[in-house]
Design brief:
The complex is a heterodimer of chains A (191) and B (580).
Chain A lengths: L1 E9 L4 H14 L3 E5 L10 E9 L14 E6 L2 H7 L3 E10 L6 H4 L9 H6 L4 E5 L1 H7 L6 H12 L4 H11 L2 H15 L2
Helix pairs in contact in A: 1-7, 5-6, 6-8
Chain B lengths: L6 E5 H11 L4 E4 L6 H7 L6 E4 L3 H14 L3 E6 H17 L5 E7 L13 H7 L3 E2 L4 H18 L3 E6 H4 L1 E6 L15 H4 L3 H24 L4 E3 L5 E6 H11 L4 E5 L1 E3 L3 H8 L4 E5 L6 H7 L18 H9 L25 H10 L3 E3 L11 E3 L5 H12 L7 E6 H17 L5 E6 L28 H8 L3 E5 L4 H12 L5 E6 L12 E5 L18 E3 L4 E3 L9 H5 L5 E5 L4
Parallel strand pairs in B: 2-3, 2-4, 4-5, 5-7, 6-7, 10-11, 10-13, 14-15, 14-16, 16-17, 17-19, 18-19
Antiparallel strand pairs in B: 1-8, 6-12, 9-11, 20-23, 21-22
Helix pairs in contact in B: 1-2, 1-6, 3-4, 9-11, 10-13, 14-18, 15-16
Classes of the chains: A alpha/beta (191), B alpha/beta (580).
Bound molecules: thiamine diphosphate.
The site of thiamine diphosphate has 24 residues of chain B, from helix 4 and helix 16.
């Protein structure tokens, strides 16, 4: 069985680390894994999406996920949740931060940031869990770990053991920031 | 599946670097360019490999060619447009051949995630008559590098490795092995092979043609190309990322000819495959190269009649175009504003562009983070700002005082210098702005000749832009901090009116550099804010108008202070993070 996970957000929010943690978790189970990352131009505050795919019984061919294919969408920002929603399977799972980051057209007054995104998504056949990850991270002393808070929240709903995720965090985060990230993971898991 | 200790998830680019290490490569010279950059950054982490950032791709290619002829396995990596720059040595090195192996990786960018065009590098392999390998995942990235060196030395030829964004930037499982330590090959002077004057080159061309057919023969039996027979009603010929998309879409319901070598193409093997399947599709992203080859050789295939030459492929595209199959999905029926990349908070280019916009100048642009500036008139390729400005000003000299060129420090070193010499030599009254943020920003912070550090983080002599421009013959050179917008504006106005070429160096380091202090932020005093929106003119992503007053997102502001210069009411103050 192939499982498709997407992580979306705004360039600079830490989607790379989050996707590497998920990839590492799958790999540690002996499953063939592919992680597709974004480098370059769109990192400059643009809309960013990464894909993590693994297969519990075979090989993963394509590194990308297309419309209607994702089992899980983990999003760091509401507008991005709305933008990438079509990539989720019907009845798929969404983990989203409630954070809003205004894109340039909104800041410049040329477009409006849509209202009630989460409420609107709740009306569809998807399963959504939201979390004010920035607030949680801020209380832990560093907004940058909001990404790992959301991974913690995802772990709560995943079929995989919690330990698999914490081991993956340990494998992916440099020693210096490990304790903070593990605390962030716990905070998300217990949210 | 059991994951062994020596197995690891690696980015395609990191797998290539690992391949270089294992293949005994000793010399890497490259110029950064998405999506190829990490190959060289990763290679630099191995002590056994000498690795450097060159000034541009032509220099990098020639350096690698020199290293290979000198007897060490060498490598250069670049993005697709970089190969345009390196094309001159590429074509003639096909004639000289190598001594120790030479591999050149070129990364295409279908869908143009970070590029200015969507060219297909396979044309270069065909045109330069060089073998080209194309991996489909990280495993093959590592394996193909080793094979590429064997082919390079066996057939005495540079070998090209074609990548695409999805291969370069996807992580997959690879198996690590030890490094093969190789002694340098002896260098023997051989002018008939290495001195490409007409008398020698005419003798080398037949060698190249013979080599092409020898390699084609090799390709017919090499493990690089393989047939996977399943149901024989449909056969698919594919390579690179297109192959994995096809596998994803059709699984084992069809047969495959998977090509690991995309030039020269193995005609005998193709015929062996097509003879045994009923209907044949060629699936190849971007241009029709395999398909055209098949058709030219009387092999009846289809592909581009159903598949685009534009953009990236995916399993979804194949499902839709070949099987008329589409997934169900949810969608919000709302307008979702786009989120284009923007200059970062604190970006030194912001002050520059504020002034250029204010003065309503025509801006002949270049490639770098400053391409995101809102007022640019043209962007073509690296270095073009300088020479295009010259052309503009020669044709419209009366308005030369309303026009500037803008170019980054790395880009100026890459290919701006020759344009500047042209401005001086042919005397156009051009005003060039060099935006010196002390780093190669757009591609993710690489050192360059102006920064004083090498790729391996060793100290290096930093080129002085002032001295360099002076040596080119520029008499009017000014250096100013772009955040000092008033001073800059004054200098710019004065330089524009001069009947002589000028260079203004805008010096302020990239805000993302670790050495730039981020110990303060800006805060709006809502009582003093008169809602005039003057601060919005700089287009900072951290300033918005939520409550009819300006609001600054303090957490992501670095306190560059540019906005304070916009506010006539002193409503914005810079606050030290240490003080609270
Ligand atoms: C021939 C070529 N090589 C490489 C690139 C990739 N590339 C785009 S911009 C850039 C360098 C930008 O650095 P700089 O000029 O210092 O400007 P900055 O981004 O720092 O503002 C590079 C390497 C390219 N577009 N074309």
């Amino acid at each position: 069985m192939t499982k498709n996970m997407m992580i979306c957000g705004v360039g600079g929010q830490g989607s790379l680390l989050a996707s590497r943690i998920l990839g590492q978790a799958a790999l540690s189970q002996g499953w063939d894994t592919k992680v597709s990352e974004v480098h370059g131009m769109s990192q400059r505050g643009g809309s960013v999406v990464t894909y993590v795919r693994y297969s519990t019984n075979g090989r993963v061919a394509s590194p990308v996920i297309c419309k209607g294919e994702a089992d899980v969408l983990i999003s760091f920002e509401q507008l991005e949740t709305a933008r990438w929603l079509p990539f989720l399977k019907k009845n798929g799972k969404i983990i989203t931060s409630t954070q809003k980051i205004y894109p340039m057209p909104v800041i410049a007054g040329n477009a409006e940031y849509p209202q009630n995104i989460i409420e609107e998504i709740e009306k569809l056949d998807v399963n959504i869990s939201e979390c004010d990850a920035i607030d949680v991270a801020r209380k832990l002393g560093n907004e940058k770990v909001a990404n790992v808070v959301l991974i913690g929240l995802y772990a709560k709903y995943s079929d995989l053991d919690k330990q698999i995720f914490t081991d993956a965090v340990k494998a992916c985060v440099p020693e210096k920031f490990l304790q903070l990230n593990l605390t962030a993971f716990e905070a998300g898991y217990n949210y | 599946m059991q994951i062994e200790k020596n197995q690891k998830l690696l980015l395609g680019n990191a797998a290539i670097a690992r391949g270089l290490y294992e293949a005994g490569c000793v010399f890497v010279s490259s110029y950064p360019g998405t999506p190829s950059t990490e190959i060289t950054e990763e290679a630099a982490k191995y002590d056994e490999i000498y690795a450097e950032w060159a000034t541009n791709e032509k220099v990098a290619y020639e350096a690698a060619l020199g290293a290979a002829i000198a007897g060490g396995r060498a490598f250069t990596g670049m993005k697709h447009v970089g190969l345009n720059v390196a094309a001159d040595p590429l074509f003639t090195s096909s004639y000289t051949g190598v001594n120790a192996g030479l591999v050149v990786a070129v990364a295409d960018d279908p869908a143009m995630h970070s590029s200015q065009n969507e060219q297909d590098s396979r044309h270069y392999a065909v045109a330069a008559k060089l073998p080209m390998l194309e991996p489909s995942d990280s495993t093959e990235c590592l394996e193909f590098i080793k094979l590429a060196y064997n082919i390079s030395e066996k057939f005495d030829t540079p070998v090209m490795l074609r990548l695409t964004t999805r291969i370069s930037h996807s992580q997959g499982l690879v198996t690590l092995a030890n490094r093969q330590e190789l002694p340098l090959k002896e260098y023997i002077k051989n002018d008939s092979k290495y001195v490409m004057k007409p008398a020698n080159a005419t003798k080398r061309h037949p060698v190249v043609e013979q080599r092409q057919s020898d390699i084609e023969e090799y390709a017919n039996t090499s493990t690089l190309n393989r047939i996977e027979f399943n149901d024989k009603k449909i056969g698919i010929i594919s390579a690179g990322d297109s192959y994995v998309y096809a596998k994803e879409a059709f699984g084992t319901s069809v047969s495959y000819l998977k090509l690991g070598m995309v030039n020269p193409l193995p005609l005998k093997l193709i015929k062996k495959f097509t003879d045994q399947v009923d209907k044949i599709y060629v699936i190849e992203e971007l241009d029709s190269i395999i398909e055209s080859f098949c058709k030219a050789n009387g092999v009846n295939v289809e592909g581009k009649n159903m598949l685009p030459v534009i953009g990236e492929y995916s399993q979804q595209l194949l499902n839709k175009n070949l099987l008329s199959k589409e997934n169900d999905y949810n969608e919000l029926k709302i307008n979702i504003p786009v989120r284009p990349p923007v200059m970062c908070a604190g970006c030194p280019h912001r002050g520059t562009f504020y002034v250029l916009k204010k003065l309503g100048l025509t801006v002949i642009g270049d490639i770098g983070c400053y391409t995101l500036g809102s007022t640019i008139d043209t962007t073509v390729c690296m270095g073009a700002s300088v020479s295009m400005l010259h052309g503009f000003n020669k044709v419209r000299p009366e308005s030369a005082d309303k026009r500037v060129g803008v170019i980054g420090d790395s880009t100026f070193m890459h290919s701006g210098i020759t344009g500047l010499v042209d401005i001086i030599y042919n005397n156009s009254y051009s005003t060039l702005l060099i935006l010196d943020n002390s780093i190669t920003g757009m591609t993710g912070h690489q050192q360059n000749p102006c920064t004083g550090l090498t790729l391996k983080n060793l100290p290096a002599k930093a080129v002085s832009l002032e001295t360099l421009c002076k040596a080119c013959g520029v008499e009017n050179i000014q250096t100013v901090d772009p955040n000092e917008v008033d001073t800059f504006e004054k200098i710019l106005k004065s330089e524009l009116t001069k009947d002589a070429p000028s260079v203004i160096i805008l010096k302020r380091p990239c805000a993302l550099l670790k050495t730039v202090k981020k110990d303060s932020y800006a805060r709006v005093d809502a009582d003093k804010c008169k809602s005039c929106r003057a601060c919005m003119k700089i287009g900072c992503p951290r300033i918005s108008f939520e409550t009819k007053k300006a609001v600054i997102d303090e957490s992501l502001c670095i306190g560059c202070g540019l906005c304070t210069r916009m506010c006539k009411f002193d409503a914005i103050e810079i606050i030290s993070r240490a003080s609270n």
